[in-house]
Amino acid sequence: MYHHSHNHGMNDMNPFEDGLAKPYDHKVVIRLLAYSKPYLKELLLSITTIFIYTLANVAQPWIIKSFIDSIGTSTTIQNEGKLIYLSVLFASAIVIGGTTHYIHMISLSILSQKVLFDLRNHIFSHLQILSVSFYDWTGVGRIMSRAQNDVSQLQEFLGISVNGIADLASLIGIVIAMIFLDIKMSLVVLFFIPLLTIIAIIWHRFSWRTFISVRQAISYVNGSLQENISGIRVIQSLNREQHNMKNFEELNSFHLKTNLSSAKLSAGLMPIVEISTSSAIAIILVIGSSALVNGTIELGIVVAFVLYIQKFFDPIRNLTMQYTQLQRSMASGTRIFELLDTPTGILNNQIDKPINELSGQISIKNLHFHYTEGIEVLKGIDVEIKSNETIALVGSTGAGKTTLINLISRFYEPTEGKILFDNNDIKSINLEIFRRDIAIVPQDPFLFSGTIKENIIYNREYLTGIEVVATCELLGLNGFINDLEHKYDTQVEERGGNLSLGQRQLISFARAIIGKPKIIILDEATANIDSITEKLLQNALEKIISSQTAIIIAHRLSTIRKADQIIFLEEGEILERGTHESLISEKGKYHNLVETFFSY
């Protein structure tokens, strides 16, 4: 079952590491910003409006200072006009600031959502072309964590980038304004910058590792949850619920612990900034009060300084918190680009002489393969398969049968040796043409959400309803389908949950043969079908595969005895080959297997 101690986590099992990201990675930032290029209009609008908002925000204390200074002068018609002007100016600054801030938030939200939309599409597209070996080594929960949690985390990134620039501009503007007002009091306020910088550096040294741990923890939780939901029947049948709950609680506790640590670190910054703000205001009030008594400073300057101090520490706090968010985005961005940078494994090579279709002839020459370096699963396999010939692969569990058909289907690349179709290396054949002419019926059928008809047609929209019905009649499916309320338009639940295993297998058969492939592969495809249905299916398949190359793995003798060639595999090597009659007469390994294990 899925259980990983948080001390070593998933890294022990998977080359797709959850390593610690850098607190700031320039390459990740550049790649993330590249996604905003198509939406330059929204980006420029967001940046422009946030700068106008910042300017209006910085201007407000200065307007208040001018207003207070004007009140202190003698009352004249000219002065009253100035007060009205300043009041209108202050109101305008507020309205302009509020309006531009609203436009900024809307444009930034549109930009972020469009970027996330493109990023999710890019991830999904890449996941579609990754080789099967990637999914062998990478848990579904980990992939889902990247495609959902990490992408959502990146929603903050563009906001951080735009608002960070605006906060920095605001900070510079406030410092300039304070220096113009009073340089001595400005130096007092500026004294807090190096102090806060030192505190922030120390804080960041601890925080970024915590944020990485949070991303790892949710990945582990998602992986455990996904595995337990997928395996619920086995779990309940073996009374494993309590043990699994204990494992999940451990992973969830680690997630809780890392989130609490992250929250404590994030919360720790706020009091520091608030204390600094209050201290600066207190010092300025003491200095300002003394200067007011001595008549060396105006009241408007003191009030403006107090307001500027409040605004001064806001961008500092924001920049610190944005850096925290940036760290989270760096962690998520690093993980996402690790996924996007994962090699596809199976390359769609171009050749000088394109092949329009396959005839079904297959040559396998000195084929070697391993999943793990140094542990060979197939050892020097040589097989010649003629067009329209039926080949049966037999052998005990672990002999290499499924691995061989996975290589023929090009889900993996051979470690050594070649697989030729019509004397063309499998690597040189266009994948679209190759996969069009080869069909697989796996032991564990997989159906998608949609109707029965959509599952049978699947990616072959040119097929008509008449062809679907004809195929199902040939395989004997039409009986149970017509008994359903909505017949071929019956909705299939997730993974075909509203159909029996045998019914799902029959639909999987129909999906495989309706496209009239030149090669059909059956991997224990009749294992979940009752003997009566299998007999009907066998009769149909005999007609179908008479004009196709068929490769069969089966545990029933009735399925393989009519094969043109039977290949007996053991520990990745071919020990025997021939027809059923010739192998029985040899009284070798195949004969013993038939006598001992095969059901009729």
The strand line-up of the biggest sheet is: 6-9-10-3-11-12
Amount of beta strand: 5-15%
* Radius of gyration of CA atoms, rounded to a whole number: 35 Å
Uncertain ranges: 1-20
Overall, the morphology is elongated
> Helix content range of the residues, please?
55-70%
Output mean pLDDT: 80
CATH topology of one domain: ABC transporter transmembrane region fold
Strand count, sense and barrel status of the largest sheet are: 6 strands, mixed
In CATH, the architecture of one domain is Up-down Bundle
Determine the number of helices (DSSP H or I, runs of at least 4 residues): 21
Q: How many beta-strand elements?
A: 12
Overall CATH class of one domain: Mainly Alpha
Q: Structural class, judged by helices and strands?
A: alpha/beta
- The CATH superfamily of one domain appears as ABC transporter type 1, transmembrane domain
Question: First CA to last CA: what distance?
Answer: 35 Å
Produce the secondary structure layout.
Blueprint: H1 26-34, H2 40-71, H3 77-129, H4 132-137, H5 140-153, H6 155-181, H7 183-190, H8 192-230, H9 232-237, H10 241-294, H11 299-340, E1 362-372, E2 375-385, E3 390-394, H12 401-408, E4 416-421, E5 424-425, H13 431-436, E6 438-441, E7 450-451, H14 452-457, H15 465-475, H16 478-483, E8 491-492, H17 501-513, E9 519-523, H18 531-545, E10 549-553, H19 557-560, E11 565-570, E12 573-578, H20 580-586, H21 589-596
Parallel strand pairs: 3-10, 3-11, 6-9, 9-10
Antiparallel strand pairs: 1-2, 1-4, 4-5, 7-8, 11-12
Helix pairs in contact: 2-3, 2-6, 2-11, 3-5, 3-6, 5-8, 5-11, 6-7, 6-11, 8-10, 8-11, 10-11, 15-17
